[in-house]
Design a protein that fits this description.
By secondary structure, this protein is mainly alpha-helical. 79% of the residues lie in helices and 0% in strands. The protein has one domain. It contains 3 helices and no strands. Helix 1 runs antiparallel to helix 3. It is elongated.
Length: 72
Amino acid sequence: MSRRTKTLISAIVIVFLWLPIYALFIMGLARHLLPGAAWYVSLLFYALAGTAWIVPIGLSLPWMYREPAPKN
């Protein structure tokens, strides 16, 4: 598979699947964990959740930029 195809697949999966599902999960989690929480607790929660979505994307980068295996 070419690098361009892998990049397209990753972009589609990230934008249309991963981010919406992750955002809905975090909103639901916050609704159950943070009702009536102080502003700084909410800020900390959303700051951590806002950076944690990058981890799976970072794991997809080596796959995306790996050179295709040479054909024999």
